[in-house]
Write a structure and sequence with these properties.
Elements: H1 3-8, E1 13-18, E2 41-46, H2 84-90, E3 99-104, H3 110-122, E4 131-135, H4 140-150, E5 157-161, H5 165-175, E6 179-183, H6 200-217, E7 220-225, H7 237-242, E8 245-251, E9 257-265, E10 273-279, E11 282-285, E12 304-311, E13 314-327, E14 334-337, H8 341-354, E15 363-369, H9 381-393, E16 401-403, E17 406-407, E18 413-414, H10 419-428, E19 433-436, H11 442-445, E20 453-456, H12 460-474
Parallel strand pairs: 3-7, 3-8, 4-5, 4-6, 6-7, 14-15, 16-19, 19-20
Antiparallel strand pairs: 1-2, 8-9, 9-10, 10-11, 12-13, 13-15, 17-18
Helix pairs in contact: 8-9, 9-12
Length: 475
């Protein structure tokens, strides 16, 4: 017997797969080398691969290929859900047959948001079909209580509690919805699939079946997913490739602000951000969220400055604040809230070098954003420098001044992107002065928002000088 025949006659061999991340090590190990979880590697039996180089016979296709121009685009047009910020992230609404994965931390408000989306869908166009919500984590009574609290009751909104994929498909046959919300995909088990519900094998099998059903019947499907301790979507990486849209639901439990961020979108821009506000009666869209991140002062106030950050394609006017504490021996504290601690340490060293009279090496420094927003982009460096330096100098920063720019190690102000869009948003909210990096002011953009004076500053010292002049003119 030849070696090829021996290989072809081999029985099924055992393979090993991590039930958390899907990694396949060559042998069983107690700890997954990919994700670090203990006891997550399980044995899965697979058949030996076929050999011999046989050619697969051709079969008659279900539908013959046609010229691309003969296909209609009407079935692929997005249908608005009625929740403006959700539609903004999706690119206009839900496309029939699209599968959306919404991931987020427990308790952040995913179920509340999608229940509101389902109610708006049910109250919308009757031709779009009813909405079906299937809960695998809560009972129907618990979901009904939440729906009553947020006002999400409608006769065309159907509800069921299931954890079996076959039962979910049975509900689809009975209700024939236009929108399916499954909360969550990790709680559904697939019949005949090895492993435990919520594991890699089950999640992959359930998602594959629902994607196939959505494409075949033209149903918009929204899957709720869990996240790992690192904040990324839980489950195998193939899960994100199976679905059409991946959204991340972010928010601090101690803040009312919630954000839906697009990570992948086959039907629109993948860098859009939707803003929401969580309150006792549910969750509402925030088409103009900048007011949450500002404390408008009547007079110039030391230790505070306003900047404009970009969240996706959206410009948000944000206020940063700084407080310089007492001088302490040893290592003083550097505390941040909503900012990057390493970035703060670097900017403190830059300020100390550019303005030696501002002694910060032995002082406690506290820096924070207003409204619970997290700012990590370098464009906020200049505003943070002005807020920090103005506090010990007792320099009140004008309330109608915005500062935009990245600060380098030598104190130079570097260029950032989307400056015209940032200035337009600041002008819309009534700001009259702006400090920007060289090459991004009136000469570069060609136009300045009406009623706004823009000044290019080359370094931190020049920025402090012009901030003082603007503050003096505002008094």
């Amino acid at each position: 017997m030849t070696k090829r025949a021996e290989r072809a006659g081999r029985p099924a061999r055992a393979t090993y797969e991590c039930d958390v991340c899907g990694h396949q090590p060559p042998k069983w190990v107690g700890r997954c080398p990919e994700c670090g979880e203990w006891g997550s590697v399980v044995e899965t039996a697979t058949s030996a691969p076929a050999v011999g180089g046989k050619v697969v016979p051709a079969r008659q296709p279900l539908e013959p290929a046609r010229p691309i121009a003969t296909y209609s685009v009407a079935p692929a047009r997005a249908r608005p859900t009625g929740v403006g910020e959700f539609d903004r992230v999706l690119g206009g609404g839900l496309v029939p047959g699209a599968v959306v994965l919404l991931a987020g931390e427990p308790g952040v408000g995913k179920s509340t948001l999608l229940l509101d989306v389902a109610q708006k869908w049910a109250a919308g166009d009757p031709e779009a079909g009813p909405a079906l919500v299937i809960s695998g984590e809560e009972s129907v009574n618990q979901v009904r209580l939440r729906a009553e609290r947020i006002g999400a009751l409608h006769e065309r909104l159907y509800l069921a509690a299931e954890t079996d994929l076959s039962a979910v498909l049975g509900h689809l046959d009975a209700v024939k919805p236009g929108l399916l919300v499954l909360d969550s995909v990790q709680t559904i088990s697939a019949p005949g699939v090895d492993g435990v519900p919520g594991g890699v094998t089950h999640v992959r099998a359930v998602t594959a079946v629902l994607v196939s059903v959505a494409k075949e019947r033209g149903i918009s499907v929204v899957l709720v997913g869990h996240v790992t301790k690192e904040g990324v979507v839980a489950g195998p990486r193939v899960l994100e490739h199976l679905v059409d849209v991946v959204l991340q639901f972010e928010g601090d439990k101690h803040s009312s602000l919630r954000m839906v961020r697009g990570l992948k979108n086959r039907f629109g821009a993948a860098d859009e951000v939707g803003c929401f506000e969580m309150h006792e009666r549910g969750i509402t869209s925030l088409p103009d969220p900048s007011g949450l991140f500002l404390n408008r002062h009547a007079e110039p106030v030391p230790g505070t400055c306003v900047t404009v950050t970009m969240e996706g394609r959206r410009a948000l006017v944000t206020e940063v604040q700084a407080l310089i504490g007492a001088s302490v021996p040893g290592s003083p504290r550097r505390t941040v809230s909503g900012l990057d601690g390493a970035r703060l340490a670097m900017l403190l060293a830059v300020i100390q070098r550019c303005r030696p009279q501002v002694r910060l090496h032995d002082r406690e420094v506290f820096a924070a954003t207003v409204g619970g927003i997290r700012v990590v982009e370098p464009a906020a460096d200049l505003a943070l420098v002005l807020a920090i330096a103005s506090e010990p100098l007792q320099l009140g920063i004008a309330a109608d001044l915005v500062a935009i720019g990245e600060v380098g190690l030598t104190g130079e102000v570097r260029r950032v992107g989307a400056v015209p869009r940032r200035l337009a948003e600041a002008a819309r909210l009534g700001f009259r002065y702006a400090l920007v990096p060289p090459g991004t002011g009136p000469a570069a953009s060609g136009s300045v928002p009406e009623g706004m004076r823009v000044r290019e500053v080359a370094n931190v010292v020049e920025a402090l000088h012009w901030a003082a002049r603007v503050s003096a003119a505002s008094v």
